[in-house]
Amino acid sequence: MQNYFSNLFIINIDDASAIRLLILLNIILLSMVLLYFIFRIAVPRIKKYGSELKEKRSMEAETGKSSEIRTPDTEAAIALALYMYFNEMHDEESDIITVKRVSKTYSPWSSKLYSMRNLR
After folding, report:
1. CA 17 – CA 24 distance, rounded (Å)
2. Which of 11, 27, 86, 89 has the most CB atoms within 10 Å of its CB?
3. How far apart are CA 107 and CA 35, in angstroms?
4. Helix, strand, coil content of the chain in percent (nearest 5)
């Protein structure tokens, strides 16, 4: 039984296989570092660029490239709505506020307060 375990853990590695193993481990390490930088740096920049591009396209679509056909009727309706909005009549108020002072108003709360002052 002892002979079986002793033969199991003995590893015969020659120089060529050790060099291949070290090269393979370095390739794995470098690929993991490269993937880290891709996911940490490149992906957020790509997402930011994509959102800026999408926003730019939507702004172009809203401003100059409208598919509506303007007719004199629609322009007159818009002009009338703006005229009515800016020239709308408001009630004029005097802007005077008066406040009447009352010396003491009766309420159950105030009477309770007055009775609490006498601590006998």
Report:
1. 10
2. 27
3. 76
4. 65, 0, 35
